[in-house]
Structure formats: structure tokens, C-alpha cells
Amino acid sequence: MTEIASYTSSLARSRASQANENRPDVFVLAGREWDLLVGVFAPVHSPTTAVAMELLGLPEARDPDRDQDPDTGLAFRGDGTFLEIGAGTGVIAVSAALAGCARVVATDISAQAVRNTAMNADRHGVADRLVSLHGDLFDAVGDEERFDTVYWHSNYVLAPDEYEYQADHERAYVDPGYRAHRRYLAEAPGLLTEGGTVLLQFSERGDLGLLRRLAEECGRTLRPVRRRDLTEGDETVELVLYEVCMKN
Ligand SMILES: C[S@@+](CC[C@H](N)C(=O)[O-])C[C@H]1O[C@@H](n2cnc3c(N)ncnc32)[C@H](O)[C@@H]1O
Fold first, then answer.
1. Does 136 sit in the ligand 1 pocket, CB within 6 Å?
2. Least CB-packed of 84, 110, 131, 136 within 10 Å?
3. Going by CA atoms, what residue is nearest to atom 4 of ligand 1?
4. Spans of the chain, pLDDT less than 50
């Protein structure tokens, strides 16, 4: 395993973010203020959220006339329905609602993240069209609900299958045995409206070879939509937004 893909380094990043004395209650991202609760993935300590928003086209997403550029406009249907798995503070889910999505459902396995997303939906006046639910992946989503976009900025670092989480916060960083990723690849397409899109925000820190094998086993392929390099300390990693497609 290379150093950038090391799960122990990711767990160390999780601990450092939690213990950081400068962890704020409120942070600024994409020109807005956001509440940050204890125990929730902190976009202020991990630039991956900002890059995830950029890859989705969200910072530029407020003017629909600018959505024509394939590399900077919205990477999803901006007036449709949007399901975000693992919403954390809710920055992406709230921004999708602000960009024009008619309905946004946000889920997280961390109860504290679910509260945090609801707080930020209130803060930005979109609580009427955003619901924040507690559950493992899609478990809290109604059986009949379908979405134009299903999205996850995942915990893309592979941990050993037998690893047991020591804190909820670690769930934002590593996925033991890629069990959650396998289930996302298998089940997310079943939640789409006709013509809908499943998106996965992944990173060079993840095990792309294993992800592709799991996709193959589930009858899926991965199509890179957009990519960006991100420098963190003395490491540069590539972040990639993939579309999960059904194999023909
Ligand atoms: C990398 S963080 C991204 C958070 C937020 N979307 C952002 O971009 O700042 C991954 C999120 O997925 C959540 N998560 C991990 N496993 C999950 C699961 N099985 N079901 C739902 N959420 C999960 C974590 O709690 C965490 O909030």
C-alpha cells in the first residue's frame, strides 16, 4: 500500500481534525458561513469538500445561464431531485438546494452530521426543500423515492475488512473492506429516475483497482466525469468525480 492510500494515515488525519484546537463552530466555504458540530467531517480541515463542490460545478452554480460549459457548469440536473449520501455538515446538499434543486434528501450514518445538515439547511433558508435523514447509505430513504442524481463524496480510503471503527468521525475517512462502496455501486442505480445519474466523488487515496473490480461484479462501469489535483502538505493527490453506469 502506498503512503497516500494508507488507512492509518487517514485515521491519523481524522484524529488530528477532531483534536485541532482551531476547529471552529462556524466556517466559511464557497462564500457562505456554515455551522460545524463536534464529531462531524470538517471541510475547513479537509480541502476535499471544496474540490468536490468544484467538480460538481456548485460554486458557479447560482446562474443557470452559466451551466453550459461542460467543465465548470453543474455536473448534474440543477432543477431536479438530489440525494446526497454522507452529507456531513450539509455544505453540498444545501448548495444543491440553493442551486435550484426542487428536492434534496441528505443522509448520514452519523447522527451528529444529520443534525449539522439540518442546521445549515435552516441557516440558508432551504429547510422547506431539504430533508436530513439518519441511516446507513439509503436505509432511511423511502422505498418509492427516486432521484435525478444520487451522489456520495465517500470515505474512499480502504481499511482492512476486519477494522472496527473507534469513533463515528472515522467513518468519514475509511471504509473497511469497501463494504459500503460495494453496496453503493450495486444499489444506487435502483434509486434513479429514468435518465438519472449516480455520481461518486473518489480520490487517488482510494483503491481504484478494487473499486473497478467491485463495479464489474455488480454489472457497473465507472466513467470519469471531471478530475482535479489537490495538494495537501507535501502530497498531491488526484480527486475524480465518477459516474456509475450500468454495463451494457
Ligand atoms: C468524506 S465525508 C464527506 C462529508 C460531506 N459530504 C462533505 O463533502 O464535506 C463522508 C461522509 O460519509 C458519511 N458516511 C460514511 N459511511 C456512511 C454510510 N454507510 N452511510 C451514510 N453515510 C456514511 C460520513 O459520516 C461522512 O459524513
1. yes
2. 136
3. 88
4. 61-68
Residue 99 burial by Cβ neighbours in a 10 Å radius (0-12, 13-18, 19+) = buried
96 ligand 1 Cβ < 6 A: no
Alpha helices by DSSP H, 57-207: 91-98, 111-123, 179-187
For the entire predicted model, the pTM comes to 0.95
CATH superfamily name and code, 3-246: Vaccinia Virus protein VP39 (3.40.50.150)
Does any ligand 1 atom lie closer than 6 A to the CB of residue 110?
yes
Determine whether the shortest distance from the Cβ of 108 to ligand 1 is under 6 A: yes
Give the start-to-end residue ranges of the domains of the chain.
3-246
E strand residue ranges, the chain: 26-29, 32-35, 81-85, 103-108, 130-134, 147-153, 157-159, 174-176, 192-203, 220-232, 235-246
Q: What is the pLDDT of residues 25-71, one digit of tens each?
A: 999 999 999 999 999 999 998 899 999 999 999 975 444 444 445 56
Q: Give the per-residue pLDDT at 71.
A: 63
